[in-house]
Amino acid sequence: FTHWMGRQAARIVATSPGEEEELAKLAEPGRLVLRRNGIDLEPFEDLPPADRFQTAYGISAGERVILYVGRISPIKNLEQLVRAFQDLSLERTRLVLVGPALEPEYAQALRRRIAALDLDGRVLLTGPLYGEDKLSALAAAELFVLPSLSESYGNAAAEAVAAGVPVLLTETCGIAPQIDGRAGLAVPVGVSTLAAGMHTLMEDQEVRDSVTMRRGEVLQELSWDEPLTQTEQMYEALLGMPV
Predict the structure, then answer these.
(1) Closest CA to 27 of 42, 43, 14
(2) Average pLDDT of the chain?
(3) C-alpha to C-alpha distance for 107 and 184, rounded to whole angstroms
(4) Are the beta carbons of 35 and 20 closer than 8 angstroms?
(5) What value, to the nearest 5°, has the Cα angle with vertex 167 and ends 161 and 170?
(6) pLDDT tens digits, residue range 105-140?
(7) Which DSSP string corresponds to 68-115?
(8) How many CB atoms lie within 10 A of CB 153?
(9) 12: exposed, middle or buried (C-beta count within 10 Å: 0-12, 13-18, 19+)?
(10) How does pLDDT run across 178-230, given as a tens digit for each residue?
């Protein structure tokens, strides 16, 4: 069905170079357009207090939070993230996984894995958070992690950058080139690489400052201004085509 849609579409939009490469088999050059996603930056300019989130989940003010936001799904590679967190043995640190469990069997297996690693209480699954609750979680976070096996773009990572939170993500995320060395770090998929990245960004302040010092540049690339203009131009070109 996807191939049929690709053949019928006047344009196919890819949100990252990686996705563009994947979609190249659906359309010849000219019909395939690279146009990144965007986010609304305004909600992240004035975050609510972190204690709203901390109080709701029993996190003390002295504890650090490593945050993930997204679906609780196999493609998000959360088992490796949990194992990497367990290997680090960071003191007074919680790993918080925020997002809907749309695949209940996977979520149950992940909870069993957390229990088997003796991480109950140190790894929290909150379910989905929206609006001020999600913003409060970002305000409480010292690090945001997106460990996906594959991610066409990665809006959650973009939102973390907008909130001023350093980002660790896998190189398989479409947004990784924008963030790596500018607002965080991109690492290969793997338990050891995720653990090393978390250790660096949580424990080495000098490196943390170095790889996030260009966050302002990244912010300019995350707004909707450019992709909206590009989308408008694309539709104008299509409307001018003969039917």
Answers:
(1) 14
(2) 93
(3) 28
(4) no
(5) 125
(6) 999 999 999 999 999 999 999 999 999 999 999 999
(7) EES---GGGTHHHHHHHHHHH--TTEEEEEES--SSHHHHHHHHHHHH
(8) 20
(9) middle
(10) 999 999 999 999 999 999 999 999 999 999 999 999 999 999 889 888 899 99
